[in-house]
Amino acid sequence: MPDIPIDWASVNWLYVILLALLVFLSTLIGTAVSFKRVFLGAVLSTVLFTAGFIFWTYYPHKLPLPTSPTGQKTVVPASPPAPPPVPAAPSAPAKPDNPVKDITPPSTNPQ
Questions:
Q1: pTM of this prediction?
Q2: Residue 8: its pLDDT value, please?
Q3: Residue 25 belongs to a domain
Q4: Spatial CA neighbour of 15 closest among 56, 67, 54
Q5: Residue 70 domain-assigned (yes or no)
Q6: How many domains does the chain have?
Q7: 41 assigned to some structural domain
Q8: Is residue 37 part of a domain?
Q9: Which of 32-36, 44-48, 80-84, 100-104 has the highest mean pLDDT?
Q10: DSSP assignments along 49-110, one per residue
């Protein structure tokens, strides 16, 4: 018997079992709907499995279940982000247009 180069410890068994259940349910529904016609049952099973697999793998269902055999991949940026722009040196403050420099309130004593 030839040696099979599969690392059985690295197999994501939950993912395999869930996909096997998806295939079983697709085949069961496809066979029931096709009224025991073999070719039509196979076509319906294929369509149902494809729809289920795409939903399971690509729809953001937010369930804590595996969505790929290799797990979630992290995206590594190609290059570090550019540093923020350096602000220009502050300029001299602008003088206000109002010529009044005294801000004391006027006296309220009538004369």
A1: 0.49
A2: 75
A3: no
A4: 67
A5: no
A6: 1
A7: yes
A8: yes
A9: 44-48
A10: HHHHHHHHHHS----SS--STT-PPPPPPSSPPPPPPPPPPPPPPPPPS------PPPP---
